[in-house]
Design brief:
Layout (H helix, E strand, L loop, with lengths): L12 E5 L4 H5 L2 H10 L4 E6 L15 E4 L10 H11 L3 E4 L4 H9 L4 E5 L10 E3 L10 H7 L36 E5 L11 H11 L4 E4 L14 E2 L6 H10 L3 E3 L3 H9 L3 E7 L5 H4 L6 E8 L21 H13 L6
Parallel strand pairs: 1-2, 1-4, 2-3, 4-5, 5-6, 7-8, 7-10, 8-9, 10-11, 11-12
Helix pairs in contact: 3-4, 6-10, 7-8
């Protein structure tokens, strides 16, 4: 198929398709901000999953969203999704994370311009295809998403755009009332297993050590009992999405592995310390947090590209990151105000 440039008038309604995990969704937000910067009157909607769509309450660049899933997480039936897309009359659908269901629904709904990638069996449903190879590309996910704007004549320099979220867009924003005058840091030890994670016991030991100098809050969802010190503010399984945003946005420092809340913290401008594997497709080169106040520590390099990820993302290689190393880096960031990391 010959390449052709999409000519926008600047008043179109565009659908960005990214119905997967929270971190992936946040790393796609620069596509919306870039379009809004060039075309301020353009209308941008996202096709997103039910839980993660709450992040749009804090994005000034996203006008609305539609849901790819029901409240229980099950995908919408194709006929229902087609009906929703038809009702919105989108001019363009840009697939940042395509699936057969979303591609087929956009095609049947008659969205006139459907931009996706090559190489998938259902790529025939896209009438403009961009050759973007993500896996083992060595290119950050933010930049890979922005490369999908090339058919619009928009070519963004790599590494120049970061996700940005703002609090204060939601009336009655939840405040969980920690009672520590915003002088605290957050540790988020849990993941959903999509990337290697530091051992939970290492996180808890780190929290104990840091709590000697600053109030430490632990956040996340976990379904087993944890032995958390009485000195730690335990918010495990206790926050709504808005409350999590509120807690993270006020923190002096946020520490986590490769998780959605890490990207949430970086986008909110909260100083963040990230723990990652040294791996071409799972490491910080592809999935690291983007922001002015972020730092990354990586594990020892593992031979080959296969990682054995256990429950909660635990991985033997991540044990090579020593607790004292993370503690010392965190103390330096807190001491410096995390302005220069």
């Amino acid at each position: 198929m010959p390449k052709r440039k999409i000519k926008l008038t600047g008043s179109e309604k565009i659908l960005l398709v990214r119905p997967d995990r929270l971190g992936d969704l946040i790393l796609s937000l620069p596509v919306a901000s870039t379009l809004k910067k060039i075309y301020p009157r353009i209308v941008i909607h996202f096709l997103a999953s039910h839980y993660n769509a709450q992040v749009f309450n804090f994005s000034p660049d996203v006008d609305n969203y539609i849901l790819m899933t029901e409240s229980d997480g099950k995908p919408l039936k194709v006929e229902k999704l087609i009906g929703v897309l038809e009702a919105e009359s989108y001019a363009v659908a840009l697939f940042l994370k395509p699936s057969w269901l979303s591609a087929f629904a956009a095609y049947i709904a008659g969205i006139p311009i459907r931009v996706g990638t090559w190489r998938r069996p259902y790529s025939l449903l896209f009438n403009i295809r961009e050759n973007v190879r993500r896996k083992y590309s060595g290119i950050h996910e933010v930049d890979l998403n922005l490369m999908m704007l090339r058919p619009f004549g928009i070519d963004v320099e790599l590494g120049t755009v970061t996700p940005s979220l703002k609090t204060g867009f939601v009336d009655g924003e939840d405040d969980i009332g920690l009672g520590v005058d915003n002088n605290y840091m957050v540790i988020h030890p849990f993941s959903k297993g999509s990337a290697p994670n530091w051992p939970i016991q290492s996180y808890l030991r780190l929290a104990d050590m840091l709590s000697e100098n600053i109030a430490v809050v632990i956040t996340g969802q976990y379904n087993s009992q944890l032995d958390i010190s009485d000195r730690i503010y335990n918010l495990v399984n206790k926050t709504s999405f808005n409350q999590l945003v509120s807690v993270i946005s006020r923190a002096k420092l946020f520490i986590s592995g490769s998780t959605g809340p890490l990207h949430l913290a970086a986008a909110l401008g909260t100083p963040s310390l990230a723990l990652y594997p040294d791996h071409p497709n799972l490491g910080p080169q592809r999935w690291g947090p983007r922001g002015e106040k972020v730092a990354v520590l990586t594990s020892c390099k593992q031979n080959g590209h296969k990682y054995s990820i256990k429950n909660n993302g635990n991985n033997d290689c991540m044990k090579s990151i020593k607790v004292n190393t993370v503690f010392e880096k965190a103390c330096r960031m807190l001491s410096d105000g995390a302005m220069s990391v």
